[in-house]
From TrEMBL, chain A:
It is found in: Secreted. This is Cardiotrophin-2. SUPFAM superfamilies: 4-helical cytokines (SSF47266). GO terms for molecular function: ciliary neurotrophic factor receptor binding; cytokine activity; leukemia inhibitory factor receptor binding. Gene3D superfamilies: 1.20.1250.10. It comes from the Eukaryota. Belongs to the IL-6 superfamily. Residues 1-22 form the signal peptide. Keywords: Cytokine, Developmental protein, Glycoprotein, Secreted, Signal. GO terms for biological process: cell surface receptor signaling pathway; neuroblast proliferation; positive regulation of neuroblast proliferation. GO terms for cellular component: extracellular space. InterPro entries: 4_helix_cytokine-like_core, PRF/CT. Pfam families: PRF.
TrEMBL record, chain B:
The chain crosses the membrane at residues 833-858. The keyword Phosphoprotein applies. This is Leukemia inhibitory factor receptor. The gene is LIFR. Residues 335-434, 435-533, 537-628, 723-832 form the Fibronectin type-III domain. The lineage of its organism: Eukaryota, Metazoa, Chordata, Craniata, Vertebrata.
Length: 204, 1096
């Protein structure tokens, strides 16, 4: 647990360094670093989702639980047709991912708060949610570095949650958390593909 | 009642009418009359007087009476209603009803007539309160509101009590309908009173189903229950329905949301939706759907079980979505357990408790605690812990100045309920001080110190009880002190009765004087007290050097409790006749001094000095009082020490001194000494230096007039051990029957105990053999001699055998055990006389025997010749011809062959026999039998020629079988040999020897088939290789068939036939001369032979 917490922190600081220092010349290095981080994140997404569901009780914790119909309007879905995805240019692709992970970091924070109420005695779940949020933030930083390297404009941070977050019922919060952890996995998968494409495009 | 009275009155009215008409048209025909009468009747009812008076009241003050108007009465008719019985009050009304004030109980006559319409009859009624109905006005619901969060309906209405003249009980009935007003789900009554004022009543009802689920409608009616009213009392009409419904937005919702309920209760969930709900489940359990308005559905859960932390999910599934809610089933807070309040410092009170049974509710639903103090009215709230635990909870409460008694109430509250626990404490009795810190020690003097410490808290109002643990090497002491508490937390106390120059370890714990709890022990503080002058002089002894010129003064270092500091040096001085001479100052580690003194009686004094001062002197006289009567005694200790005792001697005034020394050391020898008071008569000498098996010398000195006299000299052992070596021994002398052995003493060091004797073992034995055998096995061949006379140094062992090796073993023993053994092998000298005798006697005997024999032989030479070498051998003497007793039993003498009775004849035995006598065949074809014949038979004929004698049978009953068998040839062959082989069994022969014999086969065969008998037969055959008479054994044996087969007892055998052979014409000597010929009488003859002894 400690490892999973500290490792992305290290990566984050490492990868944010070039950003803060100024303009990197080649996009290959941040792409590679972002790709590594995304791959690392990909390994933990299903664990996060399973851990999350396990703590929500039946039917969430039932084996094979899936509710694709649940969506969050504040969170862009990762599912996209291949054609559409393929037609995206680098800027759009990175922009989508950037927007999604920005929303995900905020949502993961929200889910963490929700779970602090619902499952206060579950440090494992809370830690995993926190770790996921930090990784998403790390990936955001990496993407910003790539965009800087590619000379793309970095979209401004915006509040994706707005005021809708408050006053949700416990069931809504459980569902919300499910959608967020699920979409976190989907977006990580998509980010791996995005970054693999970019990596191929800008070999180091 | 009213109706009845009306009916009663009516006939009279009708009679009146009839009479009236009869007077006006009396002439009418009876039939017409009847018809008319009937018509009149009808007409008069229609257009006649008002009828059917009915009165009701809704307020008990005014009766509203109504009647049916007569037929002719049209619009504008005015009725006059008069109450006759009273003061004839009349009321006019344009309608067919009139409001009259309530009448008193009892019958009242009421007349109703139409004004200005004369000719119409006046209706008269009798009205009684009993005929009046009390029907309250239909109530009206003022307000119906709903609290959706609690699923509660709130109903509000006005009882309009002002219209009633007095206090009355009113019963209200409320009905609640669901499912578009088709299903009454609740009908409740609600009792109130009216008191002449309009009062708004409230009534609330919690629905088991969330109000959002479906429309709820409510109506109300009432019933006035006035006991004084004797008329009919009826329910009012139902008020109009009032509805409560939830106006759903477009979203589907499940109700109730996030509700916290008690475990085990029942609850209904519903899904308000526009879509069709397919299924519903709580947790993992599917539930049957209850259909409500529209697509709304509900499920009912009975006896809900406890939820997990995140609650129990209830999920409704539609075609393409899921909706749900979370329910938190838990318990109300348990009564806080073990509530306890105490203080560490009299500044702050800490209350602890145990939450008791878990509520299964966490997060915002968790139990919140409030600690309320009733005297001060202050309270503190418990901050919610993230994860509930069963461990102790605690809250801090700031103490109020000048308040000692606190009455705490701990309130526990969660969404399901509340509980509380109270405690009343006098806080000064609940002081649990913190751990004392900053312990410091300061000297007062060498036996007292000041101890100071810091105890946080303001204890100015109480006294503290503190415990000081004073720890010295090997001893722990606790001292309790009571001190007044101070505000500044600093405490100090003097600790006395300590030892100088001693390391102490102090630690402190405190409590309030009214004891509640000790604080934890403080850290330890080590402290060394200061030095004081040594309290005693050193223990002193003196020895004269071996040359007697120098006196050596010994002293022991002072024990730490007497030294009272570090001893730096010793001062030794000697005085003679009041004249003191300080000799030297000896630094500490040295504990002896050597003084050159003459033989004067000096007093030596030794003083120990430390940094503070000198000890009192220890004095000892240099001279020793002689003692002539001194013996050396022996003593053995007890393993760790040795006990010395002596008789009380009153002349010994100072003390006794026992000094001791290892006896093997050279003089002057002093290991240690011990002083005992003069009144004691024994001393146990113990020393770490004592070793078992080592000899020590102990000297007991008595002291009189400062002079010491040696009283006893003792050698002793702490513990005796077995000798470590064997005594050296040699053989001084050896003779043929004795050995003289001499041994040497064992040195004292190796003896390791007082010698008690020697054991001498000897036994016959060579060097190699006897070594292995142990001496202790108590073998009888070992001889032991125990030599207890310690002065004996030789031993003669006598009565030994000459020229024999002896094994000699010698060992010494003490009370500690046997020493090792030393062994030696000695061969005794040869005994020459015996040897000579041993040779001579046999030689002499041999010679004498030879001589005697020779003489005898010479004397009897004729007889010898006659006997052994006769010129003509006497057949009688022919031993070879003697038969056994068995053979010739009964014969008086054996004679040479007598041929007379037996005319030898040659019989040719041809093969013309019957098949019967196979017995013989089987026998005679035996190859063994043939061989001797072939070798011995000189006759060339093929046919066997046998000699035969006609059987002479006397008295015997011949065996018929034999007769038959032998019948053909009438020849019986008797085998001499077979007489010795009676075991042969004929039956077996026949079976096992099936070879058909071709004619007669002579002599030798012993038909033995039995394997056991084979061996015997073989042996016999060997012995008797030679002639075998040709007779079947059967023939003999069958004579007495009953006789046992083993016919060793020859007496049973009757022999037939010739035992001689024609071929040899000689009897063969039986194989073994079992019976001496004597019994046979010496001679042998056929007659004798055939003379048989009696059959039995």
């Amino acid at each position: 647990l400690r490892f999973s917490l500290t490792a992305p922190l290290c990566l984050l600081t490492l990868l944010l360094l070039p950003l803060s220092l100024g303009a990197p010349i080649s996009p290959a290095e941040p792409i590679s670093q972002a790709y590594s981080l995304a791959l690392y994140m990909q390994k933990n997404t299903s664990t996060l989702l399973q851990t999350y569901l396990q703590y929500q009780g039946s039917p969430f914790s039932d084996p094979g639980f899936s509710a694709p119909e649940l969506q969050l309007s504040s969170l862009p879905p990762a599912a996209v047709s291949f054609k559409t995805w393929h037609a995206l240019d680098d800027g759009e692709r990175l922009g989508h991912a950037q927007g999604a992970f920005l929303a995900l970091t905020q949502h993961l924070q929200l889910v963490g708060d929700d779970q602090r109420d619902l499952n206060p005695g579950s440090p494992i779940l809370l830690a995993q949610l926190g770790a996921a949020r930090l990784r998403a933030q790390g990936l955001l930083g990496n993407m910003a570095a790539i965009m800087t390297a590619l000379g793309l404009p970095i979209p401004p941070e915006e509040d994706t949650l707005g005021v809708v977050a408050f006053g949700a019922s416990a069931f809504e919060r459980k569902c919300r958390g499910y959608v967020v952890t699920r979409e976190y996995g989907h977006w990580t998968d998509r980010a791996v593909r995005d970054l693999a494409l970019l990596k191929a495009k800008y070999p180091g | 009642m009213m109706n009845i009275s009306l009916r009663l009155r009516r006939p009279s009215r009708m009679v009146d009418g009839k009479r009236m008409r009869m007077t006006s048209s009396f002439q009418w025909l009876l039939l017409t009359f009847i018809l008319l009468y009937l018509m009149n009747q009808v007409n008069s009812q229609k257009r006649g007087a008002p009828r059917d008076l009915k009165c009701i009241t809704n307020n008990l003050q005014v009766w509203d009476c109504s009647w049916k108007a007569p037929s002719g009465a049209g619009h504008g008719t005015i009725y006059e209603v008069c109450i006759e019985s009273r003061s004839h009050s009349c009321y006019q009304s344009e309608k067919t009803n009139a409001k009259i004030p309530a009448l008193l109980p009892g019958d009242h006559e009421i007349t109703i007539n139409r004004l200005y319409d004369f000719g119409n009859p006046i209706s008269k009624f009798t009205l009684n309160e009993k005929n009046v109905s009390l029907i309250p006005d239909t109530p009206e619901i003022l307000n119906l509101s709903a609290d959706f969060s609690t699923s509660t309906l709130h109903l509000k209405w006005n009882d309009r009590g002002s219209i009633f003249p007095r206090h009355l009980n009113v019963i209200w009935e409320v009905k609640i309908l669901r499912k578009e007003n088709t299903e009454i789900i609740k009908l409740v009554t609600h009792n109130t009173t009216v008191n002449g004022k309009d009062t708004v009543h409230h009534w609330s009802w919690a629905s088991d189903m969330p109000l959002e689920c479906t429309t709820h409608s409510v109506a109300i009616r009432c019933y006035v229950d006035d006991p004084h009213f004797s008329g009919r009392k009826e329910w009012s009409d139902w008020s109009p329905l009032k509805n409560i419904s939830w106006s759903p937005d477009s979203q589907t919702k499940v109700f109730p949301q996030d509700k916290v309920i008690l475990v085990g209760s029942d609850i209904t969930f519903c899904c308000v939706t526009q879509e069709k709900v397919l299924s519903a489940q709580i947790g993992q359990t599917n539930c049957p759907l209850i259909h409500l308005d529209g697509e709304n559905v509900a499920i009912k859960i009975h006896n809900i079980s406890v939820s997990a932390n995140s609650g129990t999910n209830v999920v409704f599934t539609t075609e393409d979505n899921i909706f749900g809610t979370v329910i938190f089933a838990g318990y109300p807070p348990d009564i806080p357990q073990k509530l306890n309040c105490e203080t560490y410092d009299l500044k702050e009170i800490i209350c602890t408790w145990n939450p008791g049974r878990p509520t299964a509710l966490v997060g915002p639903r968790n139990t919140s605690y409030t600690l309320f103090e009733s005297f001060s009215g202050k309270y503190v709230k418990f901050k919610r812990v993230e994860a509930p635990t069963n461990e102790s909870y605690q809250l801090f409460f700031q103490m109020r100045p000048n308040q000692e008694i606190y009455n705490f109430t701990l309130n526990a509250r969660n969404p399901l309920g509340r509980s509380e626990s109270t405690i009343l404490v006098n806080i000064t009795e609940k002081v649990y001080p913190r751990i004392p810190t900053s312990i410091k020690v300061k000297d007062i003097n060498s036996t007292a110190v000041i101890l100071s410490w810091h105890l946080p808290g303001n204890f100015a109002k109480i006294k503290l009880l503190c415990q000081i643990e004073i720890n010295k090497t090997n001893s722990v002491q606790e001292r309790n002190i009571t001190i007044r508490g101070v505000e500044n937390s600093s405490y100090l106390v003097a600790v006395d009765q300590l030892n100088p120059y001693t390391v102490y370890t102090f630690r402190i714990r405190c409590s309030a004087e009214t004891f509640w709890k000790w604080s934890k022990w403080s850290n330890e503080k080590k402290y060394l007290t200061t030095e004081a002058i040594p309290s005693k002089g050193p223990d002193t002894w003196r020895e004269w050097s071996s040359d007697g010129k120098n006196l050596i003064i010994y002293w022991k270092p002072l024990p730490i409790n007497e030294a009272n500091g570090k001893i730096l040096s010793y001062n030794v001085s000697c005085s003679l006749d009041e004249e003191t001479q300080s000799l030297s100052e000896i630094p500490d580690p040295q504990h002896k001094a050597e003084l050159q003194l003459d033989k004067n009686d000096y007093i030596i004094s030794v003083v120990a000095k430390n940094s503070v001062g000198s000890s009192p002197p220890s004095k000892i006289a240099s001279m020793e009082i002689p003692n002539d009567d001194l013996k050396v005694e022996q003593a053995v200790g007890m393993g760790n020490g040795i006990l010395l005792t002596w008789n009380y001697d009153p002349s010994m005034t100072c003390d006794y001194v026992i000094k001791w020394c290892n006896s093997s050391r050279a003089e002057p020898c002093l290991m240690d000494w011990k002083k005992v008071p003069s009144n004691s008569t024994e001393a146990v000498i113990e020393s770490d230096q004592f070793r078992p098996g080592v000899r020590y010398n102990f000297f007991l000195y008595g002291c009189r007039n400062q002079g010491y006299q040696l009283l006893r000299s003792i050698i002793g052992y702490i513990e005796e051990l077995a000798p470590i070596v064997a005594p050296n021994f040699t053989v001084e002398d050896t003779s043929a029957d004795s050995i003289l052995v001499r041994w040497e003493d064992i040195p004292v060091e190796e003896l390791r105990g007082f010698l008690r004797g020697y054991l001498f073992y000897f036994e016959k034995g060579e060097r190699d053999t006897s070594k292995i055998r142990g001496l202790e096995s108590g073998r009888s061949d070992i001889k032991v001699k125990n030599i207890t006379d310690l002065s004996q140094k030789t031993l003669r062992i006598a009565d030994l055998q000459g020229k024999t090796s002896y094994h000699l073993v010698l060992r010494a023993y003490t009370d500690g055990g046997m020493g090792p053994e030393k062994s030696m092998f000695v061969v005794t000298k040869e005994n020459s006389v015996g040897l000579i005798i041993a040779i001579l006697i046999p030689v002499a005997v041999a010679v004498i025997v030879g001589v005697v024999t020779s003489i005898l032989c010479y004397r009897k030479r004729e007889w010898i010749k006659e006997t052994f070498y006769p010129d003509i051998p006497n057949p009688e003497n022919c031993k070879a011809l003697q038969f056994q007793k068995s053979v010739c039993e009964g014969n008086s003498a054996l004679k040479t062959l007598e041929m007379n009775p037996c005319t030898p004849n040659n019989v040719e035995v041809l093969e013309t026999r019957s098949a019967v006598p196979k017995i013989e065949d089987t026998e005679i074809i035996s190859p063994i039998a043939e061989r001797p014949e072939e070798s011995s038979d000189a006759e060339p004929e093929n046919h066997v020629v046998v000699s035969y004698c006609p059987p002479v049978i006397e008295e015997e009953i011949p065996n018929p079988g034999v007769d038959e068998a032998g019948g053909t040839s009438q020849v019986i062959y008797i085998d001499v040999q077979s007489m010795y082989q009676p075991q042969a069994k004929p039956e077996e022969e026949q079976e096992s020897d099936p070879v058909g014999g071709a004619g007669y086969k002579p002599q030798m065969h012993l038909p033995i088939t039995s394997t056991v008998e084979d061996l015997a037969a073989d042996a016999d055959l060997d012995k008797t290789a030679g002639y075998r008479p040709q007779a079947n054994v059967n023939a003999w044996n069958l004579v007495s068939p009953d006789s046992p087969r083993s016919t060793d007892s020859n007496s049973e055998i009757v022999s037939f036939g010739s035992p001689c052979s024609i071929n040899s014409r000689q009897f063969l000597i039986p194989p073994k001369d079992e019976d001496s010929p004597k019994s046979n009488g010496g001679g042998w003859s056929f007659t004798n032979f055939f003379q048989n002894k009696p059959n039995d």
